[in-house]
């Protein structure tokens, strides 16, 4: 269900295309590069984050997503390593299923946010940007106490609550929550049950997909050393 | 409305190969600018004012190899019968401005004025077709008046196609109903420095339209040249006395 | 790293010297375009990915129901969005539109929208009340020259690929029902002609003054320039044609002048490529249609077998 392609854009330092369920997203990372004077920070890297929707021009919806993504990436990129530099992250949605039909008024952005975060991980690794730790994001729908990971937009619409949760992963263990966006009604014990289930899932994704990807990438990048 | 009668007369009484009344004046604003001109092409009226070459206001405008041209195009609200507020950031305006800047970047000997800025302000007072052409002609004259070195005149003209007949120098009514080609020609050559065609014409008719447009541009060049010479003679006679 | 990756003098000289010997750096002929690689989405109508050399583009066509302009009650709405982000190249600024971007957007828009290549009257549902609003989003992913030609081709391809949901009018023209794609076969757009943009870049290896005055004609013309070729070029012209031998647009925004004979010559020569590219769109779309129908039939058979 998940497929990742990286290094497909020649003009960016790192890029990744992620297909997650029926959401397709492409992210590019350029940096560290020279910032404009007003972006420059004296002792750390500044981030420029741009999210572009699949249809139409960017609106406040994309600005909100940008803000969430920025708060996450700010805490995970080793910014003091690149003082007075700029890291540009552009996320372009290609296929998005945030609405059930095109005329639907309710817009479920959690699958979009989830795909954007995961795609950024691969693009940042591809660009060789220093990260403090790995991170895995999950989109989860809860209905009558049952959890669905990576729900479709229909499942989102029918759920009691849905969440995007992103974990900090160190030494293969999910040890910190970096981001939790929840919508809908949820009881405290359900929330904790959801989080502990999500920890398992996140570690699984990390071991089965991210580690494999990084290993292959390092092997390919250093093929000249053998 | 008949744009071209069977007798071969156009809506304003011209034949197919006649240009409209062309009036031009050079050095119209001698106190407020380094070079200025005023052009009437039929009812299209344009003032052009040139400042420079001068020190650029922004560091980004200083190019160590050649002069930077900055064109500001403003179209008056009263330039058409419909009073409409026109913003400078409109895509069409930006395109015209960029086109003019890039055209003259080549025809002006920019390499003689490194690290300077030449600012050109165009004011369209009245529109009746051929606005881009009139702006180009006004810019050429104003730059000559400012004493900026150029390789040759850039003379511009429009031509259109009515059915099978090419028509020279389109007025506003004709321009709305027919496809119009605007060209800018360098001096008396057949070299085109500017080209703009926005509506369909059959490929096989391009040659005839292009041919009369070039002939028209050459005529405009001669008219501009005689105005420059007239002004030059007045100046030199003042110097002599 | 700086954003403005200007190319070095050595690289420039090498490139010009190669041109003088009749060679391009990627060993194409002067009038040869890069081979487009097309992938049409099987599930989403109007989603196309296009690789043109290293230039990469994703196009998305979408339809919504809107209200027509008051002065044009019978015409549908049609817009082309073309914003270039720094994903394509760090040189493009995200916060403001450069003149370059506006020029690209204007030329594509003139080629497609202004030339009426989409039949707007066919988009009318109820006159003065409801019409289809068709939007084309051009998302440039990677820049290796020639956004105009690629953008125009991609947009036309996606418009051919797109299908809007079928509708029926009920209650004597008061309400409309939009049928789901699974319920009724969606309908394609009515396209009147296919404009193809071709950009020629020129180089003048000789003296600038004698070239400007038309004393010598030894400029070199390259079709479909890539990024290096675009950075070195001294001028360019966009010729937009369709296969009915209609000239839709000529746009030369500055640069070194081009002689009238060369212009005519280039326009006539372009017809061959225009025919090829138009044929390519037709071929790819009809192949895709066929595959889709075969798949559909297969599915229907399976349902039958289950019973």
TrEMBL record, chain A:
Domain Exoribonuclease phosphorolytic: 3-129, 136-200
Pfam families documented for this protein: RNase_PH (PF01138), RNase_PH_C (PF03725)
Lineage per the UniProt record: Eukaryota, Fungi, Dikarya, Ascomycota, Saccharomycotina
Protein name per UniProt: Exosome complex exonuclease RRP46 (Ribosomal RNA processing protein 46)
Key words of the record: Exonuclease, Exosome, Hydrolase, Nuclease, Nucleus, rRNA processing
Domain of life per record: Eukaryota
Localization, UniProt: Nucleus
InterPro entries tied to this protein: ExoRNase_PH_dom1, ExoRNase_PH_dom2, ExoRNase_PH_dom2_sf, PNPase/RNase_PH_dom_sf, Ribosomal_Su5_D2-typ_SF, RNase_PH
Molecular function in Gene Ontology: exonuclease activity; RNA binding
From TrEMBL, chain B:
Gene Ontology molecular function, alphabetical: RNA binding
Record carries keyword Ubl conjugation: no
Spans through the membrane: none
Quaternary organization: Component of the RNA exosome complex. Specifically part of the catalytically inactive RNA exosome core complex (Exo-9) which may associate with the catalytic subunits RRP6 and DIS3 in cytoplasmic- and nuclear-specific RNA exosome complex forms. Exo-9 is formed by a hexameric base ring of RNase PH domain-containing subunits and a cap ring consisting of CSL4, RRP4 and RRP40.
Designated name of the protein: Ribosomal RNA-processing protein 41
Species per Swiss-Prot/TrEMBL record: Scheffersomyces stipitis (strain ATCC 58785 / CBS 6054 / NBRC 10063 / NRRL Y-11545)
Keywords: Cytoplasm, Exosome
Source organism, top-level taxon: Eukaryota
Taxonomy of the source species: Eukaryota, Fungi, Dikarya, Ascomycota, Saccharomycotina
From TrEMBL, chain C:
Pfam families linked to this entry: RNase_PH (PF01138), RNase_PH_C (PF03725)
Family matches, as InterPro entries: ExoRNase_PH_dom1 (IPR001247), ExoRNase_PH_dom2 (IPR015847), ExoRNase_PH_dom2_sf (IPR036345), Exosome_comp_Rrp42_subfam (IPR050590), PNPase/RNase_PH_dom_sf (IPR027408), Ribosomal_Su5_D2-typ_SF (IPR020568), Rrp45 (IPR033100)
The keyword Cytoplasm is annotated on this UniProt entry: yes
Molecular function in Gene Ontology: mRNA 3'-UTR AU-rich region binding
Membrane-crossing segments per the record: none
Any one of the GO BP annotations: U4 snRNA 3'-end processing
CDD domains (alphabetical): RNase_PH_RRP45 (cd11368)
Signal peptide: none
Location relative to the cell: Cytoplasm; Nucleus
Domain Exoribonuclease phosphorolytic: 34-165, 194-263
One cellular component (GO) term of this entry: nuclear exosome (RNase complex)
Keywords: Cytoplasm, Nucleus, RNA-binding
Keyword Repressor in annotation: no
Family that this chain belongs to: Belongs to the RNase PH family.
Descriptive protein name: Uncharacterized protein
Native organism: Scheffersomyces stipitis (strain ATCC 58785 / CBS 6054 / NBRC 10063 / NRRL Y-11545) (Yeast)
Phylogenetic placement of the source organism: Eukaryota, Fungi, Dikarya, Ascomycota, Saccharomycotina
